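Here is the promised in-class demo. Please do not try to memorize the tokens; focus on the logic of going from shape to residues.
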């Protein structure tokens, strides 16, 4: 594993990105024996506004808890992709919802498109599990 892994989970409020970040950080810390920190940012809207969860995982003590350059970017909306893709490492992984992110920049050769929210709705009858499906994709790719 790289010394420090930085992830940005981005989309809109109500997609469960904060919870996804917490789950990811706790799993890395408790079950992976790593140092992990999760930070979050969201708009004043309860649902629909911008939402971002950042997760930093390291083998050593984390001196700075924010993402400097994302190794992994999850973009569940076009706005989130447009806003955060510029902060993706040149060798970083971009995971985007193919039904909501229609203009995908070619900033990385590791771009993965999945109909995440659509799959959640079809398989489980609700988009509320979009965050958990996203985590499964990220874990599967890494």
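The designed amino acids, position by position:
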């Amino acid at each position: 594993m790289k010394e420090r892994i930085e992830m940005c989970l981005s989309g809109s409020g109500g997609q469960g990105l904060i919870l996804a970040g917490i789950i990811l950080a706790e799993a890395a810390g408790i079950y992976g024996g790593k140092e992990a920190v999760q930070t979050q940012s969201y708009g004043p809207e309860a649902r629909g506004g911008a939402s971002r969860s950042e997760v930093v995982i390291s083998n050593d003590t984390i001196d700075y808890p924010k993402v400097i350059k994302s190794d992994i970017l999850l973009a569940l909306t076009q706005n989130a992709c447009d806003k955060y893709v510029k902060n993706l490492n040149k060798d970083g992984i971009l995971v985007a919802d193919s039904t909501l992110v229609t203009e995908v920049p070619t900033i990385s050769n590791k771009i993965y498109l999945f109909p995440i929210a659509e799959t959640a709705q079809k398989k489980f009858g609700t988009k509320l599990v979009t965050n958990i499906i996203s985590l499964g994709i990220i874990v599967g790719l890494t």
